[in-house]
């Protein structure tokens, strides 16, 4: 390890140690719960609301919470006393909240699906609150969730432990608040932000621990399904993802897939995920600010390197995603700034598949078109060869700014084989279908030179290399900074800043 890496790593360890102390302090504070506030759900701490609020219905173990809900008016508060609570012993045993219902768990209150019930809380009721419960043992089917199964609007899910379930720990509805929960070891996702037909908006995901999810290893069961992760977001317009600890998920940490827009991902600790820490796919307008990425994509990177696959697997992967001023958002770019990247397989990869566009047979999101074109069928020969369809029928990796970040890695990491420690902006050679106007090097040239993708004012430690245009074109730092690429103006390499 170079002296520059060692110096920077020491600073990182101090920062990480301070963060660990802070998390420990939060955990200790959370074990002593004031009656007026729920526990913040950090895994390994005690969660629960210690006493029933005035007017709440007390639900003891053995009481049928489903019937209690059915025969109570909207807006009723239920307090589940300590012990293990069960629903009816059939797969469709479930609680069906009414608008404004509140479900509180005492410390030690567990709602257990016993491997029988598919979902815990269903229906599209609005303004439901679930707080202080441990929810485990439910067997949701693939792509379905245990809590808020039907994507009700404006739910608050706060200070719970949602663990060891099949499917997703929870679904989301517009206006949902997911705050201070432990979401761990669920079979597919911790969070599946999806609603049939789309239309999700205004999500807040704050202060959660999201870990160990995708225990079902869905990407192996269904290769290329894109159906796993710590948290997955589909067609969400507006999301604040702040202050979470996203770690040790068996796949991607955070994955935004298909026409998401206006995301703020800030002040998260994202580490030790088997695949990318963040995968932002065919989506728009993102601020990625002040996060720490440690040791992400090592499993995926080693596996691909061992097979001789030279694709630049990275901690942050932008796939056909970029800034779009025509979509209302807090930014018209993808702005990646002020983040710390330490010992990930690689740093940031900007990719655009020349064959993946709206109405192309090569588009794996077969039912989706870009947010700029309707209907899908309009993206066809001959109209697609001229503007505006020529530009609007493809998801563009464009208007990406990567600045004021720190990147460090140790090139002696296991399985590197010269394929780690890379930064990339690239595409493939377009070949398909025959009527595509994007065949050849059209998209490689565009993403590399004409779509406003810029690195600048960054700091690097370690022997970083750079990939531009396509996977065959590997560059030194000096080549990356020189014409025709002119990247990383005023960036530092080791102790040397070139400006």
UniProtKB/TrEMBL annotation:
<keyword id="KW-0732">Signal</keyword>
<feature type="signal peptide">
    <location>
        <begin position="1"/>
        <end position="34"/>
    </location>
</feature>
<protein>
    <submittedName>
        <fullName>Conserved putative secreted protein</fullName>
    </submittedName>
</protein>
<dbReference type="InterPro" id="IPR039448">
    <property type="entry name" value="Beta_helix"/>
</dbReference>
<feature type="domain" description="Right handed beta helix">
    <location>
        <begin position="148"/>
        <end position="297"/>
    </location>
</feature>
<dbReference type="InterPro" id="IPR012334">
    <property type="entry name" value="Pectin_lyas_fold"/>
</dbReference>
<dbReference type="InterPro" id="IPR006626">
    <property type="entry name" value="PbH1"/>
</dbReference>
<dbReference type="Pfam" id="PF13229">
    <property type="entry name" value="Beta_helix"/>
</dbReference>
<dbReference type="InterPro" id="IPR011050">
    <property type="entry name" value="Pectin_lyase_fold/virulence"/>
</dbReference>
